[in-house]
Amino acid sequence: MDLIDRLVSAVGAEHVLTGRDVVAGYEADWTGRLRGRALAVVRPGSRDEVAAALVACAGAGVPVVPQGGNTGLVGGGVPRGGEVVLSTVRLAALDAVDRTSGQVTAGAGVRLAALRAHARAAGLDFGVDLAARDSATVGGMAATNAGGLRVVRFGPMRAQVVGLEAVLADGRAVGSLAGLEKDSTGYDLAGALVGSEGTLAVVTAARLRLVPALPARATAVLGFGSTEAAVAAVPALRGPLLTAVEVCFDDGVALVCAHRGLAAPFRRPCPVYLLVEYAGEHDPTDQLGEAVAGIAGVLDSALATDEVSRRRLWAYREGHTEAVGALGVPLKLDVAVPPARAAAFEAAVRAAVAEVAPGARLVLFGHLAEGNFHVNVVGAGDEHALADAVLRAVAAEGGSISAEHGVGVAKAPWLHLTRSAAERDLYAGIKRAWDPGGVLNPGVLIPR
Ligand SMILES: Cc1cc2nc3c(=O)[nH]c(=O)nc-3n(C[C@H](O)[C@H](O)[C@H](O)COP(=O)(O)OP(=O)(O)OC[C@H]3O[C@@H](n4cnc5c(N)ncnc54)[C@H](O)[C@@H]3O)c2cc1C
């Protein structure tokens, strides 16, 4: 029996896709920049079917690329050439919310929007939110340790995962969905899978912490004369109600306004903008107003409490990805530096782009409380040289080459900038221990 026949007997003929036109949607990433040919796409509907599909691929010596919502931005979820794509879309079971523990068990293929709606229906919420919420899956978010808009309040995916269930390349199932908040029985296997980008095992389900629903919100946009002034404002904003501190710059906001036909936030443009959100059980407008009043260097500000006005303010920040995409396919680099180094890093990035790609268009935005910048460059020319310059600037500031998107294939060549030789040896040893045959996502995270 050849591999396709084995996959068909594992999951059924309708869930093994080989036709070029049907497979094409699984072969390119969200930006269209990263793509490759898949041998086939297999869509198992249960943990046992995942195991059977993996055993078939391992037996045939064909590598497997796990894929969730395919919103990843570093090429870890799309084939490089000749792999089987294992899509988790059918692993979409969502158990009833366990109110006693404040947790829920979700299949790896459950979309973030569905998870949040499910939690909200039970009077709770899920702590991670990101703009790709309609497509990004629980498994993909765990595998990339996704962050997003509310990390300052609830932490990244790592902080939400209580347990994972996963299947090794040899078909054995590991992990627990019991939801034990206390368990000091040795190594944290679920912790090892968070951020593993499909290189160690295929996550089939997750036990997730839920957070209180925060029905009352207040949002402000603040204009500053410099990034230093915006960074200096962060301590005054911190507190139990703080839910978001997003940063963007005058050129990006002007681009969003032109793209979406929005009026500028203020009569006079400001070099730097912060979008700040407070959320709680009761209206946090007064607390946000007080925090803002205590900040020096605010050139202008707007405060919104009703949903329509809040959405209007968020549009200046959330419109960036779409507006940049309308200019062309950008080189996207998601990085983090210690927040206190954010202004120095911004200056270094602007200098690096001006030197390496003088004609390129740079648009920066990000999550300032975590020092997380999204560096978008349209018309970069020599993308490798530009990525090299930007990621070296990150390393020089003591930062991370990946804040929340993962390393994938796109950044694997630069892992050495922020992981020592001893740490890279450990990475390789962990990979060998979980996946000795090298079946799962070769070339992702750990350079070939
Ligand atoms: C418009 C837009 C906005 C975004 N905003 C954010 C943001 O604010 N914060 C953020 O963190 N990310 C953001 N992202 C990136 C992306 O949404 C996240 O990386 C997300 O976690 C990917 O989930 P996915 O289901 O699409 O995974 P995929 O793209 O399908 O896969 C991502 C990686 O996870 C692996 N993987 C997927 N499923 C499994 C599984 N079940 N088991 C093992 N490995 C698996 C894949 O092999 C791959 O390496 C954004 C993306 C877009 C397009």
UniProtKB/TrEMBL annotation:
Gene3D superfamilies: 3.30.465.10, 3.30.70.2190, 3.30.70.2740, Uridine Diphospho-n-acetylenolpyruvylglucosamine Reductase, domain 2, Vanillyl-alcohol Oxidase, Chain A, domain 4. Its cofactor is FAD. Pfam families: FAD-oxidase_C (PF02913), FAD_binding_4 (PF01565). Residues 34-213 form the FAD-binding PCMH-type domain. PANTHER family: D-2-HYDROXYGLUTARATE DEHYDROGENASE, MITOCHONDRIAL (PTHR43716). Belongs to the FAD-binding oxidoreductase/transferase type 4 family. This is FAD-binding oxidoreductase. It comes from Actinokineospora guangxiensis.
